[in-house]
Design a protein that fits this description.
Shape: globular
Oligomer: single chain
Number of strands: 9
Helix content: 10-25%
Structural class: alpha+beta
Strand order of the largest sheet: 5-4-8-9
Strand content: 25-35%
Order of helices and strands: EEEHEEHHEHEHEEH
Number of helices: 6
Distance between the termini: 21 Å
């Protein structure tokens, strides 16, 4: 038994559950993903492709901490530093550790462009458990304007979850692997 989940951040969540040859689809809200217990789950694949040029940024299994870092990297730096994600320019306690981010801005504020755009920054964060990571990821995905994402997670009980954001990039699919396009045609764009 497996479960596929698709999120469009025009805010609809579809869950497709398959047992043998039977397919069923239900619609739920994004908040429902926050109620799932991600304890002992595994991120079996994170697939991110740049919306503008179709370059694949990542296509591999990652830890929940790496999932958080990759997704938060897609948030515009001024929004990232507003304090909603546990990221800071300075450590808040001895449990905080340094991570590197590349500054990203939308280009509308010249002083932000000069201050952050393309700048390699040493920021600070702390480890979060899988449930808190997913809260950050679900909060950050609607703020992501840079990448199409597909996150595959296997839950503790063996159910499989797929969270998609702007996936597939229907404007341009030049960088997509055929199996992802086939999957998208069957389940996402059906």
């Amino acid at each position: 038994m497996f479960t596929f989940v698709k999120i469009n951040f025009k805010l609809q969540l579809s869950i497709v559950k398959s047992t043998k040859n039977m397919l069923a689809q239900i619609t739920a809200k994004t908040e429902d993903l926050r109620t799932i217990d991600y304890t002992d789950a595994k991120v079996t694949n994170l697939y991110m492709v740049n919306i503008g040029d179709c370059d694949v940024a990542i296509n591999e299994p990652v830890s929940f901490q790496d999932l958080r870092k990759h997704i938060l990297q897609t948030v515009y730096t001024p929004d990232l530093l507003k304090g909603k994600f546990g990221i800071s320019k300075t450590p808040k306690s001895e449990n905080w550790y340094p991570i590197e981010f590349v500054g990203v801005v939308d280009g509308t504020e010249p002083e932000e462009v000069e201050k952050y755009d393309g700048l390699c920054m040493k920021l600070f964060t702390y480890n979060k458990n899988a449930n808190d990571v997913m809260k950050d990821v679900l909060k950050a995905l609607p703020m992501n304007q840079l990448y199409s994402c597909s996150i595959n997670i296997t839950l503790k009980d063996g159910r499989k979850l797929t969270i998609n954001h702007k996936f597939p990039n229907t404007q341009r699919t030049c960088g997509w692997k055929p199996e992802f396009v086939d999957f998208a045609r069957k389940f996402v764009m059906a």
